[in-house]
Amino acid sequence: MSAPARLRVATLNCLNMALPGRRFYSGIEPYRPDEYIAKTQWLAALLDRLAADFVLVQEIFHEKALRDVVSQSTSGPHAYGLAVPLADDQNAKPRVGLIWRAPWQPRVETLTDFPAGCAVTVPERGNYAHYSRPLLLARVPWGPDGAALTLLNVHLKSRRPEFVAGESEADQIAEARAQLRSLIMRAAEAAALRRLVIDLTPAGSMLVLGGDFNDEPNAVTTQLVADTSWKDDNEGARDHVLFNTLDVAPHATPARGRDVAFTVLHGGEPERIDHMFVSEPFVAGRQPQLARVVAVEIYNDHLAERHAHAHGLVAGPDLARIHSDHAAVCTTMELMPPPAH
């Protein structure tokens, strides 16, 4: 298969994609059959809207549930392949996965442990040396002379307080300590991910990294992964830098403002915590430039509707359980034309 000039890659946190009747979190009721049907249909419709070649997905509990989504695509049950390592029918943790359009055949692997030397000690919790959600890495031939494109799907530690035995969630002092632990764990994952990015991006390597970072673009953890902060103004360009696709997309891309380019509503306030980054060969002025970002789309229309239902403003089915609580982010990129001879 010759590589197409254009490629669409999306990321989406699906929100607890689990089989009906299976408990996925303590205190949250499993999906009823009717809710499950509605959820898989809604996600299948979004998959059709995205029309992406690859979709990085998060919060998948059971691979079979994701198969039920893609089987309802208007493209037909055989239009997509998928992989969700570690998400068998007995799984009880949120996993990351990949959907791809046929006839792509990516090589997929799971990364669970931090690279050597990246472990940290979390107060009252001990050694932390594993990603809370194992990463998914995939490689496909897309580039000059069949060069490999690497896709990396991440879901960093949530902002939820990390309590330890003996602490009361009603104790505000303990909660502050628990929030500190959560931040340290997410920062440790970001630093370990930064090390991995360096390993994956020798000169000229094409990398697309996307997922749920659980932090906004300018947060220290997000910037740590991209290596775009903590530099003197007069410092020259460095290697292994990642670029947010919204920052390098042409001006035709919709506005980047907080009121438009958000991916979650946190307490009713818009935030952007789902990101897509590309390596240097996608960016003008970095050598060699092998590809470019054409456009970035954020599919967040459903979030306001979901928010209204969740707060009893609109009657009807509980869309807070059916719709995802995240927007999908989709980046279109294309290979640069070969140099004229």
Features:
single chain, about 350 residues, alpha+beta, six-stranded mixed β-sheet, 7 helices, 16 strands, about 30% strand, globular
Mean of pLDDT: 92
Percent helix: 10-25%
Number of strands: 16
Alpha plus pi helix count: 7
The main sheet comes to: 6 strands, mixed
Strand order of the largest sheet: 3-4-2-1-16-15
Q: SSE order in H/E notation?
A: EHEHEEEEEEEHEHEHEEEEHHE
N- to C-terminal separation?
25 Å
Quaternary state, please?
single chain
| Spans where pLDDT lies below 50 across 5 or more residues | none
How much of the sequence lies in strands comes to 25-35%
Topology (elements, then pairings):
Blueprint: E1 6-17, H1 33-50, E2 54-60, H2 63-70, E3 80-83, E4 95-101, E5 107-113, E6 120-122, E7 126-128, E8 130-141, E9 148-155, H3 172-200, E10 206-212, H4 220-226, E11 243-244, H5 245-248, E12 264-266, E13 269-271, E14 274-278, E15 291-299, H6 301-310, H7 319-322, E16 328-335
Parallel strand pairs: 1-2, 9-10
Antiparallel strand pairs: 1-16, 2-4, 3-4, 5-8, 6-7, 8-9, 10-14, 11-14, 12-13, 15-16
